[in-house]
Amino acid sequence: MATTGVFNGTNLLLKIEGATVGHTTSCSLSLSMDTPEATTKDSAGFSEYIAGVKGGEISFEGLVAYDDTSNAIEMADFLLARTQLTCVFGTTESGDAIYTAEGFLTSVEMAGEMEAAVTYSGSITITGAITKSTN
Predict the structure, then answer these.
(1) How buried is residue 34: exposed, middle or buried, by Cβ count under 10 Å (0-12/13-18/19+)?
(2) Each residue of 61-87: pLDDT tens digit?
(3) Hey, which of 50, 54, 77, 103 has its CA 20 to 30 A from 44?
(4) 127 with 102: CB under 8 angstroms?
(5) In this predicted model, what pLDDT tens digit does every residue of 97-109 receive, in sequence order?
(6) Residue 122: CB atoms within 10 Å
(7) Residue 64 CA: distances (Å) to CA of 30, 72, 88, 102, 118
C-alpha cells in the first residue's frame, strides 16, 4: 500500500547499480527544466517562455563503512572509470513512486575529522530520460 501522509526521510533510498547506497544520512533528487525566452513584439509587453531541455541531479551524503555493498570507495571507482550508472530513487513501499535514470557521478568526497565518523558525499548528473513508476 502506498505511503500516506508525511513520512520519515529514513524511508527514502537511493540505489545505484541495484544496491542501496550504504549508511546514507540524506539523499535528494533535483529535477529542472530550461525555459528559453520566446518573447516577441506580439507578446503585449509581457515575457513569454517555452518549455526547454529537462534534466536532473541526484545527491547523497552518508557515513563511510567499507563493508557496505555500495560504499564510498565503489563510488570513487565509478567516477574514476567514468561509469554510466543506473540509479533508482524512492521508497521500498509498494505503490510509492520511484524514479529511475542513468547518470554519471560528477563528484565524490570523503572527509574525516578527529574523533568523528568518516563521511562521504556525491552528486550524479542524470543523462537521458527520467522514468517514473511505482514499486
Answers:
(1) exposed
(2) 999 999 999 999 999 999 999 999 999
(3) 54
(4) yes
(5) 999 999 999 999 9
(6) 24
(7) 24, 6, 21, 24, 6
pLDDT, tens digit, 9 for 90 and up, residues 15-62: 999 999 999 999 999 999 999 999 999 999 999 999 999 999 999 999
Torsions phi, psi of 31, nearest 5?
-105, 145
Report how far apart, in Å, the C-alpha atoms of 19 and of each of 13, 22, 55, 85 are: 10, 8, 23, 11
Output phi, psi for 78, to 5 deg.
-60, -45
CA–CA dist 76, 86 (Å, integer): 16
CA separation for the pair 133, 100 (Å, rounded): 8
